[in-house]
Specification:
alpha+beta, 15-stranded mixed beta sheet, 5-stranded antiparallel beta sheet, 42% helix, globular, binds zinc ion
Length: 792
């Protein structure tokens, strides 16, 4: 008697005789693996202040955090002078050769676009050296000690700075390392990365390059992620995996970071002869650059992780031959249960192609065994795009709805208590996937749908391998594991235990690889881009479909009431996930309310034209909050009046003129030769300011060359009336000398000078923020700018 061929698959790959037991066992195993992943991403317990002296102690480091971040200490301020004195005293107290590099330095990288001209700063870097016994090179531990003007920088970057002080203490009490260790605490990172740029370009200790370990924080909690490396990083990553006690890092982060408009001091070193690693913790981003970035908000577990890794890496690089750390290639690497897995980047494309071939072979086998037809395989592949598109779209719509209910979120990098919203996005992604699966499982068949998921993972793997190689492992490896699980299932008795074991193992691989990016992408990108995490969550769901299938009754074979019951049961996971998404979003809205400790962020600045007596309130909020709305009434263009504030359109409103002086312009010399005029001027602030700008009306003269404080600056014509400009951060009280070589167009040359200080409390018409209204994390809120045009 012939057995009728199986209807195109009633099960994905496994059909265990005791399905409920198998389903529970597989689910419990995956949950355990998921818990292991979360433990691997968690921060260590902070060591107390009386920990052994060779160890890094967050307790000891935190004492320095409290001193450094006692108040906002923007570059050039008296508060920053006090911080610097504390750093110098501490490092000298350790017996280290310590000095202050006092210099005028240009910015690193390409930040000038928004700032309105060539950017420089007066910087004072604190540099200390622990000489090695037999150096093969130098190891640089770098952090910035300045803060933004809007907050004390309790995390950003008192975390990195105090961690380095504690590492310096631990290193100077133990045996001397072989290589030189140089501690570089930079100035004016927030303004323009100028401190790091000045060190990398001009300091004698930087002349021969070396290994840079940069320590940053962009939040208040979460694991420290090694998110950026120099090119050809294989040897560095190998050492990172071996020597960092908590090696959380992924080659995918490097790719994401390159796509984001962020920069750190590390950029300044990459422009030069350095190699290195850049690390930061990034969760709790709501307080980033705000007055709430105080020491009390720091997660000392994150500080411990920063310090453990920095000390481990400093010791290892301190003994390694630094002769040639540049490998011929980049590595692919990612965290696996507390460790780091890595393989050479040149394997990326072959692996991706292998995964594609393996999944193709699986499809062919499924067809041959009668588990699927060409038609259902094609349908499975095509229809898998539905959740891949719908889940991110749903996440975006969910966040749009939540920000409509709570508009203040628009100005936040991430909500204060984002966990509920993150879980809501994950639940929503699961709901989309389960719903899709329940609808198609009987029609297309579980095997064809499982194939469709693996096929897309493999296709994404190839696309990523070409475009974003560091991220290709995310889909290539789960696709490979899933294909091999399929082969194993097809090669063994279908109703035996092995198919269940095989699909569970493959799903575990997917959980290990794809759960960390789901967890880390939320803080990295913020809820506004929760769609990206939703996409990764769906990819994870597709990779574990054969296990999800075990939760369902058979897809075929039943009739009548049994079939109806099966369909109802099949809809259960989708319904439960959808309900969870709604409940979690609701809990988020209920829990994360704005209050005095979690204020709604607002942005306000004040700009005065001292020549005309016209003043304005300005905000960068696109839809002004109720508090801000009391100051502004429409869109304004400031490019003509305040070129030093950039060229973007802002919201603005009229203000009362404050009796504040504009910076003075002293003409030191004026010489002519041929059609050229050389103007030497000194811009002198008439009050305590944070920055000075000088712009030339390129309708009155063409600027040929320029120098600021003796340094030549690039002359690239900009847009608009004020086509040439310079921005100088942390100017000394005696002002800044600027030399302009230009060709006038006939009459007087029009020059506009502006300066800016911080704090609006003395400005006429300013009403202090009520409780529950706070200051947004930015480089310009609370700024008070005064400008004036001078004809020369
Ligand atoms: Zn910062």
């Amino acid at each position: 008697m012939g057995v009728p061929p199986t209807r195109p698959a009633d099960r994905a790959f496994a059909r265990p005789r005791r399905r409920p037991t198998a389903a529970v066992a597989a689910t419990v195993a995956l949950l355990a693996v998921g818990a292991g992943v979360l433990v691997g991403l968690s921060t260590p317990a902070p060591h107390p202040a009386d920990a052994p002296e060779g160890e890094f102690s967050a307790g000891r480091a935190f004492r320095n955090v409290e001193v450094i971040a006692a108040e906002p200490h923007v570059a050039g301020s008296a508060a920053n002078d006090r911080v610097r004195e504390h750093l110098v005293g501490t490092l000298r107290g350790l017996g280290l050769q310590t000095e202050v590099q006092d210099a005028v330095a240009p910015e690193a990288g390409q930040l000038s676009g928004a700032a309105g001209g060539a950017t420089l700063a007066r910087v004072r870097n604190v540099v200390a050296r622990l000489p090695g016994t037999d150096p093969t090179g130098k190891v640089f531990l770098v952090s910035h000690y300045d803060s933004v003007q809007t907050g004390p920088g309790g995390n950003d970057d008192a975390a990195g700075t105090s961690a380095i002080l504690e590492v310096a203490r631990a290193l100077s009490t133990g045996p001397r390392p072989r290589n030189d260790i140089v501690f570089v605490l930079t100035d004016a990172e927030e303004a323009c990365l100028c401190g790091a740029a000045g060190f990398a370009a001009d300091h004698p200790l930087a002349r021969d390059g070396g290994v840079v370990l940069n320590l940053e924080a962009r939040g208040s909690t979460g694991p420290v992620i090694m998110f950026e490396t120099s090119r050809n990083n294989a040897k560095l990553v190998e050492i990172f995996g071996r020597a960092a006690p908590h090696p959380v890092g992924t080659s995918f982060a490097v790719e994401i970071y390159r796509a984001l408009p962020n920069d750190t001091d590390f950029t300044a070193f990459l422009d030069r002869r350095f190699v290195g690693l850049n690390s930061a913790y990034i969760d709790g981003g709501a307080i980033y650059h705000t007055p709430l970035d105080v020491p009390a908000r720091m997660d000392r577990g994150s500080l411990q992780m920063h310090g453990d890794n920095a000390l481990g890496l400093a010791r290892e690089f301190g003994r390694t031959d630094l002769g040639d750390l540049r490998a011929g290639h980049d590595d692919t690497y990612f965290p696996v249960l507390g460790g780091l897995v890595r393989y050479p980047g040149w394997l990326t494309l072959p692996l991706a192609v292998a995964a594609l071939l393996a999944v193709g072979a699986l499809g062919w086998l499924l067809r041959r065994r009668g588990r699927a037809t060409a038609g259902t395989l094609a349908a499975g592949f095509g229809l898998t795009l539905v959740p891949v598109v719908v889940a991110p779209l749903g996440a975006w719509l969910l966040w749009t709805a939540i920000t409509t209910i709570r508009p203040g979120y628009a100005e936040l990098l991430d909500p204060y208590r984002p966990v509920w919203y993150r879980l809501a996005v994950v639940a929503l992604s699961a709901a989309v996937l389960f719903c899709w699966y329940a609808l198609l499982r009987r029609r297309v068949g579980p095997a064809a749908l499982a194939f469709g998921g693996l096929a897309w993972l493999a296709v994404f793997g190839v696309l990523l391998a070409v475009a974003v190689p560091g991220g290709a492992y995310l889909t290539t490896l789960p696709a490979l594991a899933g294909a091999f699980a399929g082969f194993a299932a097809l090669a063994t008795r279908r109703d035996g235990p092995w198919p269940v074991v095989a699909v569970t193992l493959a799903a575990a691989v997917a959980v290990v690889i794809l759960l960390p990016p789901v967890v880390l992408l939320f803080p990295a990108l913020g809820m506004g881009m929760g769609a990206v995490a939703a996409l990764v969550a769906v990819l994870l769901g597709l990779a574990v479909l054969p296990v999800v299938d075990l939760l369902h009754p058979r897809a075929g074979g039943q009739r009548g009431l049994l079939a109806l019951r099966a369909r109802r049961l099949g809809a259960l996971p989708a319904a439960a996930a959808a309900l969870a998404a709604v409940v979690l979003a609701g809990v988020g809205l209920a829990v994360d309310r704005f209050d005095a400790a979690h204020p709604v962020p607002t942005h306000l600045m004040y700009a005065l034209d001292a020549g005309t007596g016209k003043a304005a309130w300005l905000t960068r909020e696109e839809k002004p909050q109720p508090w801000t709305d009391g100051y502004v009434d429409g869109t304004v263009s400031i490019a003509d009046d305040f070129p030093g504030l950039g060229t973007t359109e802002l919201r603005g409103g009229p203000a009362t003129a404050a009796p504040l002086p504009a910076p003075k312009l002293d003409l030191l010399s004026d010489s002519r030769s041929g059609d050229q005029r050389v103007l030497r001027v000194r811009v002198v602030p008439q009050r305590q300011v944070r920055l000075l700008t000088l712009h030339v009306d390129t309708g009155t003269a063409t600027v040929r060359s320029a120098s600021v404080a003796g340094r030549d600056v690039p002359v690239e014509p900009g847009d608009g009336r004020w086509g040439f400009g310079v921005v100088f951060h942390a100017p000394p009280p005696e002002g800044v000398e600027v030399t302009l070589t230009l060709v006038p167009r006939g009459g007087a040359v029009s020059v506009r000078a502006m300066d800016a200080s911080d704090g609006l409390s003395g400005v006429p018409g300013f009403r202090p923020r009520p409780k529950g209204v706070g200051v947004v994390g930015s480089h310009s809120s609370e700024m008070l700018a005064v400008a004036r045009t001078y004809p020369l």
